[in-house]
Structures are given as structure tokens and as C-alpha cells.
Write a structure and sequence with these properties.
349 residues, alpha/beta, 7-stranded parallel β-sheet, 6-stranded mixed β-sheet, binds pyridoxal-5'-phosphate
């Protein structure tokens, strides 16, 4: 096997969904965000596992993603599209029964003209200034929009991963001001908001990263293990170097293993000389720069050279890799490369 093997534990994804579902009252539904190919893990397989676990409402970023999720799930579950109803989306929305979250008066008009019978929701901006109708815009069209019976009113928190940030309470108050008394089901929280407590839960939550084992859901079960096969190993004398730029130099007689995987596979070059790969529970430091397709690793302390080394797994989560590359677990997940062989494990149940 020449490529890295990305093991994806569907049972752990289902368990994380159940744990996040249990964090809110039974009256609060728990959706599932499967945008960006389910954060790089495969939207079809992941959405089916989540549907088996009990998820009934799925969220994607754009209509094309919604069409793919619909093909995987078949009729029944609701598939909501954060980018709403964009120019040219009508055939996808109607053919695949998607539910756009309308972001502006333009989108509302477009939707009601093109697909008057197709369910929709409305996204409101409560301070993030990214997507959704602003207060004045909403005030102007709320009456018309509500008369067409939207299925959801939603907004998104900018700072939910920082529980003490004053923006959270500010956005909560604004969301209430915009939606109290409408009688329409409401949704404010992604993974971080669920952890802020019941005030933030409303009728439906929308976890994404927590399902996939990422922070801020600290109790998440790990979902991915990434094993990189060793191509070859060699002995180095003290003073010899490894990799581009000679940034790692042997201080003792060393054994360097070269593994398949590099920055073209989403293993950021910033990880150079900064993190470990793992042989079971033995850490082996990266020795030198991460290159496009290969990484050199110091395996001197292992009794023998293994056939592969793990860069993600129970010893090192996506957020650890994120910290090593000055980024976040979300980016590590969504950067996981196309060249890995993806192996799905643990049927949901
Ligand atoms: C991505 C996204 C989510 C999921 O967020 P996580 O932090 O991954 O749980 C929920 N809602 C919106 C609007 C999003 O863009």
C-alpha cells in the first residue's frame, strides 16, 4: 500500500452526535453539519451514519453539496443550505428537495418567485456580519416572509468557542429580539453554542466539528487515525542532516524513516521539526522539513523500523496537529488530502 491510510470511525461520529444531542433537552432537535464533504471525511458515508444514529436535519454550505447528500440519504431528511438560494440554484433546490436558508431580501424574492412551494428558512445576522438579513432588512420583510411559513429562523455565533466572550450574550439578545413571538422554530448554536448551555439551544442545534472529534467539544471521541507507510529507513552519523534546507542535524547515531505524506496531503509544512509521529504509544519526532509528498522521522528509539507511523490517532488529535501548524482542528480535517485511502470502520448503530 503506497498511500497513507485514513481510518474514519463512523461509530465514533455517531457517538459524538448522541453525546451532543444529550447535551440539550429532548425537546431540542440536534441536526448535523456535513458541509465541505463532512469536514473532509466523506459526506455520503458520514451522513448515512448520522441518519442511522437519529439525525433528521442536515446542513451544507452550498446547493451542490446538498444534492450529493440527498443522493446518499434518499428522500426524507431535511437538507438545509447555508448559502441560501443563489442565482442558478433553483433546479438543484427543487430536484433534490433542498431547504435554502435565505440570507437577503434578494434571495427571498428569488426564492418566492422561482419556487413558491419549496420550503425555506431564514438566516439572520446578529453581529457576525457574514451571512443573514440584518435587523432593518428583516423588519422590512418579516411580515411577508412569516406569512409564507419559513421552517426555521437561524443565526450563527461568532465567538462560541470562547464562553466568556461578551459577544455571545450580545448575539443571544439580538436573536431573541429578532425572533421572539414569531412561533417559527429557531436555531442559534453550532458545537460551541451547545456547550454554552440551554439558553443557547432553542429548537434545533447544528453541530459540525464536535461530531468529527474536534474542539471545542473536549469530550469528543477521536474519529480519525492517519497511518503513513514507511518507504525506507537509513542510518545517519552525527552531523548528517535530513530534508530540504538541512534544518535537522543528527546529534547522535540516528535512524531516519521516510514516510509517505506531505503538505500536498494537508500535512502543513509548518509542522516541520515541530510534532511527532507515533509508533503505538512511542513518539517519534519529525526530523527536518515536511516536503510535498514525504516526511522524514527520527525513529532511533524504536527497537525496529515499523511499516507505518501514525500522525493522527489516539495519541495526537486534529487539534494537536492544528496547534503544531498554528491553525485549528477544522482546517486540519478539511485539508486531509485526496490521496489517502479512506477506510470506514464501526457501522453506526
Ligand atoms: C460550519 C457551521 C456550523 C457548524 O459549526 P461547528 O463549529 O463546526 O460545530 C453551524 N452553523 C453554521 C452557520 C456554520 O457555518
Amino acid at each position: 500500500m503506497a498511500s497513507g491510510i485514513l481510518h474514519i470511525d463512523l461509530a465514533a461520529i455517531a457517538a459524538n452526535w448522541r453525546a451532543l444531542d444529550a447535551a440539550s433537552e429532548p425537546a431540542t432537535q440536534t441536526g448535523a453539519v456535513v458541509k465541505a464533504n463532512a469536514y473532509g471525511l466523506g459526506a455520503g458515508r458520514v451522513a448515512r451514519a448520522l441518519a442511522e444514529a437519529g439525525a433528521r436535519r442536515f446542513f451544507v454550505a452550498m446547493a451542490e453539496e446538498g444534492a450529493a447528500v440527498r443522493k446518499a440519504l434518499g428522500p426524507g431528511p431535511q437538507i438545509c443550505v447555508f448559502s441560501g438560494h443563489m442565482q442558478g440554484d433553483a433546479p438543484l433546490i427543487s430536484d433534490h428537495d433542498l431547504t435554502p436558508m435565505l440570507n437577503s431580501v434578494d434571495q427571498l424574492t428569488r426564492h418566492l418567485e422561482a419556487l413558491p412551494d419549496q420550503p425555506f428558512g431564514i438566516q439572520l445576522d446578529t453581529g457576525m456580519n457574514r451571512l443573514g438579513m440584518e435587523r432593518a432588512e428583516w423588519a422590512a420583510v418579516a411580515e411577508i416572509a412569516l406569512s409564507r411559513r419559513p421552517v426555521l429562523l437561524m443565526s450563527h455565533l461568532a465567538c462560541a468557542d470562547e464562553p466568556d466572550h461578551p459577544m455571545n450574550a450580545h448575539q443571544l439578545a439580538e436573536f431573541r429580539a429578532l425572533t421572539d413571538g414569531t412561533g417559527v422554530p429557531r436555531s442559534l448554536s453550532a458545537t460551541g453554542g451547545i456547550l454554552l448551555g440551554p439558553d443557547y439551544h432553542f429548537d434545533l442545534t447544528r453541530p459540525g466539528v464536535g461530531l468529527y472529534g474536534g474542539l471545542p467539544f473536549e469530550q469528543a471521541q477521536p474519529v480519525v487515525r492517519l497511518a503513513l507507510p514507511v518507504v525506507q529507513a537509513r542510518a545517519l552519523e552525527p552531523g548528517e542532516s535530513a530534508g530540504y534546507g538541512c534544518t535537522w542535524v543528527a546529534k547522535r547515531p540516528s535512524v531516519i524513516a521516510t514516510v509517505v505524506g506531505g503538505y500536498a496531503d494537508g500535512l502543513h509544512r509548518a509542522l516541520s521539526n515541530r510534532i511527532h509521529l507515533w509508533a503505538g504509544d512511542v513518539p517519534c519526532p519529525i526530523a527536518g522539513r515536511v516536503s510535498m509528498d514525504l516526511i522524514t522521522v527520527d525513529v532511533t528509539d524504536l527497537p525496529e523500523v515499523p511499516t507505518s507511523l501514525d500522525i493522527l490517532g489516539p495519541q495526537q488529535f486534529v487539534d494537536d496537529l492544528g496547534a503544531g501548524a498554528d491553525t485549528i482542528g477544522y482546517e486540519v480535517l478539511t485539508a486531509l488530502g485526496a490521496r489517502y485511502t479512506r477506510r470506514y470502520e464501526g457501522a453506526a448503530g
